[in-house]
């Protein structure tokens, strides 16, 4: 007798029984529970083909990994009593992603988490009272274990927050020969006032937190800060206690100061940039006129004064699109806004185009150089070489403006005495200098190789302040500073794996 083919439902049940826990069926279709998709089941080879796909294999590995973690969590929970690993991981995730713990009070979020994790979701007060501090302490301990006996650099800066507090953040980083520096936000404190004494005190307190048994003063090789007078004074005071320390003021800040001088010497361009962006801000009808009459040209940029490269980029924009911009402005009614009236007067100035051309010709290279100086994982040799290019090009700028910029930069560098020392170290590491110059610091032959990836800007601490402002949003003003500090440190160090 001829072989009777199995019915569709019977065939599907065979696939399900052969791959227990993988497939499910409603007697009509075959569904892969791991991949969450329907599988073509007309022929066996298509089913086998699905089982070999990268997506399915990844899902299988994920299932195995989760099973192992579940067992580990059960053991951990047994040891830790009521301290739930799931709750800790949930809290850590929310702190790292800057998600308010109070979001757990949202019914839809908790229902979603319960549905897909099969876990009881804790109240936000439970996490805040029982887990935030532990997660913070674990993060600090993991950083201490990693840094341990390594040579380090340290960076401190201060800002005034929306509550009027003087907040100082401390970045520490390792100096290693065979790997780029690893940086950590290690401390954040409120200062009574900002002067060299409070900075020195914070410096010492931070290193005592890092090395509670005994501060390893000879392991602190570099201090990076801005060029504020109290920071310079603090650097001199600290050199008496930390005899190997080199204090350099941020080279990126030196470039910012030059950019500030450029802006100061081109007031009409500054007015054009300031008013040009206002014209099209929250003005959809004017934006439409611009797009219709200047197709393919972006709207005027909105530079941020504290990011000096953006001002120069805006000046370059107006130089490149001056004619099209003027045509659009002349179509607008000057009675609609003061900014339109001012820009219409400015574009009548005969010197405006000349100023834009001069800025683009001699200073348009600066934004890219600033971005390079702000990069992570850059060799000291590359950072110094990039800054030297800035110095060289500014020294070649002609005219009275060029002389002013050159004098400004030379004045800044004269105050940054450690710059010459780092240049010598760079030359030794690069092989362009063979003899070791006399140094005031007690830097030894053993120490010099650790400057291979030494940073020359304080951009990391600036980024931590950006994170601080995000955490201290308008709807989070009830944050106590202690909890704010813990949240910030966990969030800013979320890139660091505690198992390293």
**What is the second-level CATH architecture of the largest domain?**
2-Layer Sandwich
CA gyration radius, whole angstroms: 30 Å
Q: Helicity level, as a percent range?
A: 55-70%
Any idea of the CATH topology of the largest domain?
Answer: Nucleotidyltransferase, domain 5
Strand percentage: 5-15%
> CATH superfamily of the largest domain, please?
Ribonuclease H-like superfamily/Ribonuclease H
Structure write-up:
The chain is globular, with a radius of gyration of 30 Å. It contains 22 helices and eight strands. The strands form two sheets. Strands 6-5-4-7-8 form a five-stranded mixed beta sheet, with helices on both faces. α17 runs antiparallel to α18. The relative contact order is 0.10. The model has no long low-confidence stretch (mean pLDDT 89). The N and C termini lie far apart (68 Å). It has 500 residues and is α/β, with parallel strands linked by helices. β2 and β3 form a beta hairpin. The protein has three domains: 57 residues, no CATH class; 217 residues, Ribonuclease H-like superfamily/Ribonuclease H (Nucleotidyltransferase, domain 5, 2-Layer Sandwich); 104 residues, no CATH class. One of its GO terms (molecular function) is double-stranded DNA binding. This is DUF659 domain-containing protein. InterPro entries: Cggbp1, DUF659, RNaseH-like_sf. One of its GO terms (biological process) is regulation of transcription by RNA polymerase II.
């Amino acid at each position: 007798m001829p072989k009777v083919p199995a019915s569709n439902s019977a065939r599907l049940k065979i696939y399900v029984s052969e791959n227990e826990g993988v497939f499910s069926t409603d007697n009509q279709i075959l569904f892969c529970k791991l991949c969450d998709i329907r599988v073509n089941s007309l022929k066996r080879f298509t089913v086998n083909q699905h089982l070999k796909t990268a997506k399915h294999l990844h899902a299988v590995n994920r299932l195995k990994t989760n099973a192992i973690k579940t067992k580990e969590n059960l053991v951990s929970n047994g040891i830790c009593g009521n301290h739930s690993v799931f709750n800790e991981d949930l809290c850590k995730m929310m702190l790292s992603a800057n998600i308010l713990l109070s979001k757990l009070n949202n019914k839809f979020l908790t229902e979603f988490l319960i549905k897909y994790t099969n876990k009881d979701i804790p109240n936000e007060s439970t996490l805040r009272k029982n887990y935030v501090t532990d997660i913070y302490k674990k993060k600090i301990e993991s950083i201490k274990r990693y840094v341990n006996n390594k040579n380090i650099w340290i960076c401190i800066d201060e800002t005034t927050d929306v509550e009027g507090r003087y907040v100082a953040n401390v970045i520490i980083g390792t100096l290693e020969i065979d790997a780029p520096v690893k940086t950590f936000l290690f401390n954040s404190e409120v200062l009574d006032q900002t002067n060299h004494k409070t900075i020195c005190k914070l410096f010492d307190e931070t290193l005592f937190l890092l090395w509670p048994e005994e501060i390893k003063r000879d392991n602190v090789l570099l201090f990076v800060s801005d060029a504020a007078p109290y920071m310079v004074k603090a650097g001199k005071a600290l050199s008496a206690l930390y005899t190997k320390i080199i204090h350099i003021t941020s080279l990126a800040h030196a470039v910012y100061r030059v950019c500030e001088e450029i802006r100061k010497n081109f007031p009409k361009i500054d007015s054009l940039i300031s008013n040009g962006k206002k014209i099209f801000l929250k003005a959809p009808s004017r934006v439409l006129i611009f797009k219709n009459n200047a197709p393919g040209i972006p709207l005027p940029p909105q530079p941020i004064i504290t990011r000096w490269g953006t001002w120069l980029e805006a000046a370059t924009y107006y130089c490149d699109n001056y004619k099209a911009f003027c045509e659009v402005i002349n179509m607008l009614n000057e009675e609609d806004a003061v900014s339109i009236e001012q820009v219409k007067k400015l574009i009548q100035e005969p010197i405006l185009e000349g100023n834009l051309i001069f800025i683009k010709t001699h200073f348009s290279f600066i934004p890219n150089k600033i971005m390079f100086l702000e990069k992570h994982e850059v060799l000291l040799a590359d950072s110094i070489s990039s800054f030297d290019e800035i110095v060289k090009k500014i020294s070649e700028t002609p005219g009275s403006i060029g002389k002013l910029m050159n004098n400004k930069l030379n004045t800044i560098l004269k105050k940054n005495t450690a710059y010459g020392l780092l240049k010598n170290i760079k030359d030794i590491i690069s092989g362009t200098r063979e003899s070791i110059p006399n140094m005031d610091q007690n830097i030894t032959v053993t120490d010099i190789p650790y400057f291979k990836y030494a940073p020359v800007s304080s951009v990391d601490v600036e980024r931590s302040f950006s994170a601080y402002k995000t955490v201290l949003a308008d709807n989070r003003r009830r944050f106590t500073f202690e909890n704010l500090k813990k949240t910030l440190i966990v969030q800013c160090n979320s890139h660091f794996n505690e198992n390293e």
